[in-house]
TrEMBL record:
Keyword annotations of the record: Oxidoreductase
Native source organism of the sequence: Nonomuraea guangzhouensis
Pfam families: adh_short_C2
Top-level taxon: Bacteria
Ketoreductase domain sequence ranges: 3-176
A GO MF label: 3-oxoacyl-[acyl-carrier-protein] reductase (NADPH) activity
Entry protein name: 3-oxoacyl-ACP reductase FabG
Family indicated by similarity: Belongs to the short-chain dehydrogenases/reductases (SDR) family.
Highest classification ranks of the organism: Bacteria, Bacillati, Actinomycetota, Actinomycetes, Streptosporangiales
Family annotation (InterPro entries): KR_dom, Sc_DH/Rdtase_CS, SDR_fam
Keyword Acyltransferase: no
EC annotation from Swiss-Prot or TrEMBL: 1.1.1.100
The keyword Lyase belongs to this UniProt entry's keyword annotation: no
């Protein structure tokens, strides 16, 4: 039976790959997006995860279209890279608000219906920099590290309700977000010697959302080509 799935920030990059992968598995997939047009073949809802009213409205529309969300993938995120000494406070707080507090908003809205169903999957998309760190990304790394503590606390709160909560930590993925980086320099530090394709992240999310992962919760799964190993 098709499950109701929501992927935030699902109109491009990793989010779109995840949405397509779960749709291919037979799920009914909705995506949120802030600008542009919704992806073809998916139920798109315009939503800014920094707004609780936007989140509430998006969930209302998704529930009316495909039922209560059973699989939530909190993927929406932004970067505003600056060295700390030159970073304005709003540059720090804006990234925390979108990446970490945004995940709180969608998870909070999703959790009660999941409790009623006595089942659910929550998958948070973090990053290799959450534990390894990255110069110029104190805001981004802090937001992505926060997702780990947030997700593990959720896993302890809701495991008895049949809800699993896991974190995927991608490395450098070939998307618009990494297009302006010095890829050659980064690849030198990756044991596998290349960037990931978005689909490689999506297939791990598909596994965590599946029945095969029913006894996995509170896990942080690196998909980083070995870049962050040891963390």
């Amino acid at each position: 039976m098709a499950r109701s799935v929501l992927v935030t920030g699902g109109n491009r990059g990793i989010g779109l790959a995840i949405a397509r992968e779960l749709a291919a598995a037979g799920d009914a997939v909705a995506v949120t997006y802030r600008s542009g047009e919704p992806p073809e073949g998916l139920f798109g809802v315009r939503c800014d995860v920094t707004s609780m009213s936007d989140v509430e409205s998006a969930f209302d529309k998704i529930e009316a279209e495909q039922g209560p969300v059973e699989v939530l993938v909190a993927n929406a995120g932004v970067t505003k890279d600056t060295l700390l000494a030159m970073m304005k406070e709003e540059t720090f707080t804006d990234v925390i608000d979108a990446n970490l507090t945004g995940a709180y908003r969608v998870a909070k809205r999703a959790i009660r219906p999941m409790m009623k169903l006595k089942r659910g999957r929550v998958i948070l998309v973090s990053s290799v920099v959450a534990l390894a760190g990255s110069a110029g990304q104190t805001n981004y790394a802090a937001s992505k590290a926060g997702l780990i503590g947030f997700g593990r606390s959720m896993a302890r709160e809701y495991g008895s309700r049949g809800i699993t909560v896991n974190v995927v930590a991608p490395g450098f993925v070939d998307t618009d977000m990494t297009a302006d980086l010095d890829v050659a320099a980064i690849i030198k530090n990756i044991p596998l010697g290349r960037q990931a394709a978005p689909g490689e992240i999506a297939r791990v999310v598909r596994f965590l959302a599946s029945d095969d992962a029913s006894y996995i919760t509170g896990a942080v799964i690196p998909v980083d080509g070995g870049l962050g190993m040891g963390h």
